[in-house]
From TrEMBL:
GO BP annotations listed: acetyl-CoA biosynthetic process from acetate; phenylpropanoid metabolic process
Name the UniProt record assigns to this protein: Acetyl-coenzyme A synthetase
Gene3D superfamilies linked to this entry: 3.30.300.30, N-terminal domain of ligase-like (3.40.50.12780)
PANTHER family found in the cross-reference section: ACETYL-COENZYME A SYNTHETASE (PTHR24095), ACETYL-COENZYME A SYNTHETASE 1 (PTHR24095:SF14)
Lineage, uppermost ranks: Eukaryota, Viridiplantae, Streptophyta, Embryophyta, Tracheophyta
Organism expressing this protein natively: Acorus gramineus (Dwarf sweet flag)
InterPro entries in alphabetical order: Ac_CoA_lig, ACAS_N, AMP-bd_C_sf, AMP-binding_CS, AMP-dep_synth/lig_dom, ANL_N_sf
Top-level taxon: Eukaryota
Molecular function GO terms recorded: 4-coumarate-CoA ligase activity; acetate-CoA ligase activity; AMP binding; ATP binding; trans-cinnamate-CoA ligase activity
Keyword Ligase annotated: yes
All copies of domain AMP-dependent synthetase/ligase, residue ranges: 128-396, 401-495
Amino acid sequence: QTMATSSSDRRLRHVESGPGRMQRLNAVVLGESIASEEDELVFPSEGFSEQALVSSHEQYLKMYKRSIEDPAGFWSEIASEFYWKTKWGEEVFTENLDVRKGKITIEWFKGATTNVCYNALDRNIEAGNGGKIAIQWEGNEPGHDAQLTYSELLEKVCQLSNYLKDIGIRKGDAVVIYMPMLMELPIAMLACARIGAVHSVVFAGFSTESLAQRIVDCKPKAVITCNAVCRGTKVIQLKDIVDDALVESAKNGILVGACLTYENSSAMMREETKWQDGRDIWWQDVVPKYSTTCEVEWMDAEDPLFLLYTSGSTGKPKGVLHTIGGYMIYTATTFKYAFDYKPSDIYWCTADCGWITGHSYVTYGPLLNGATVVVFEGAPTYPDYGRCWDIVDKFKYVTRYSRKSLRILGSVGEPINPSAWRWLFNVVGDSRCPISDTWWQTETGGFLITPLPGAWPQKPGSATFPFFGVQPAIVDEKGNELEGECSGYLSIKNSWPGAFRTLYGDHERYETTYFKPFSGYYFSGDGCRRDKDGYYWLTGRVDDVINVSGHRIGTAEVESALVSHPQCAEAAVVGVEHEIGAFAAPDRIHWAPGLPKTRSGKIMRRILRKIASRQLDELGDTSTLADPSVVDQLIALSDF
Ligand code: WT7
């Protein structure tokens, strides 16, 4: 069926100028009569492409081709838009991704010196944007807000930098930051970056044990925290958790000398806060006394910028290490193109800085572009489920929940199933805003597969095409690269500037986990399908893959089918040991009040697998779950 409307003409025009194989599609079927999800193309709305940074697939292909054929030229041109104290030499990057050829190494702009904080703040101020709002903060309570211009942000960062230097923190020292989404969290990250200290942000929802484990691993000179935070109606006493974690760390021989504590008086007064003299210092008592200017520490591009721990499904958390130069260039560039950034935009990423998304797309990427970023302390469900749209409208000063100001939507973290995609697109974005379904990982630093919103039609549920400079490969279990339409293991053939360089203190685990499974490739751990038009579809973690009679089925594929039923809001699918049968039909379906999710919203399917196969004593670490009580409910429900 062809939609005979004026917009269908536009569709066809785009199809004709689209990538090779799409030209064969001569009709676009939308709505009820979708033949296959792969055939559903959603085009940029009227006028969007014309104003976009990349406005056609052709333009993308031209840029992409250059980025692959001449990565050194492509990336050094972009890097030249930033400030470098001294430039890189002849060799823009070096890489070895093949374990057969020796140690895995990735280096970008080595020998050049720069500073990320300088590029994010001083450089934008020098360009005349000092008076522009850098951070628009929204507190837990509606009506509680604050803002900082670029100049004000720099002053705050410098004061903290000076304080940290004064207590003896030097280039290369680690600092753990355990804070909620106060403005002081990005301030602390930037202050570390300014003086060359390596920050390690630990999500403030993590337990004492998780925090202690990270402290023991990276041995920080200081911990930065706040006394308490309100999330919705709950008050969480963070300082108590830090105290316990420091006791725990001391038992493991790691003594942390300083605990800088921000008094978050909207949650708890200082008088009520437990205190250890000599170690604990109130931020407000010391930091404002310091000078509002602070010399920048010029750093090698390959010096570490931060460590961020990602909990593998088993074993101890992995300290993903990112370095300065490449990460800076990569997050700035992916931010700019995936969100088609315009200086007049107000940009909001709802992620917490405790995750990589909050590093790359709350703090570094946007500020490096001189953007105005919304930082939200609270919960999307408080005081009610309309809070997000309330915030969207508030900062554009229009009628409640009109969402008219929205231009682009983003999605990340799990495959977004087509039904959820359509809801986001139709309901939230009024069928007008493109969705950047960005595929990436803590390890990758920035987006690797992502729509460029004006450049090509989207397919609900597909992350679409690779970003500049990224060469994905879908390989089979033997590591052979598959061509054309195929499905297998998603790997990357080359390095990109934002790639992590090692796992802190364990380069061997880095090589074993990511580079040994398929020699010559970075292995992502995700399953992926490439359709006839070259679009990439993420099918879930390969550890979660379901094997039916030798057919490997991604969790996302079955889940998408389930949630297409109008009465199913969400689904998680796992495979259990079973007699081999010819048909893939679920044995059991349980209705559940909730799914076991991490605090970043990822479904922990390994726990479901254990419950489904009744291996209840092997549930593993459930402390990172947002609501561990869900597990007990599920166990009770599935007791058959
Ligand atoms: C894993 C990485 C990436 C920042 C937040 C999570 C899954 C991520 C997508 C997407 C399908 C996605 C993958 C990946 N994932 N984005 N757009 N479509 N799956 O970072 O905690 O390091 O998790 O999240 O499975 O490997 P992370």
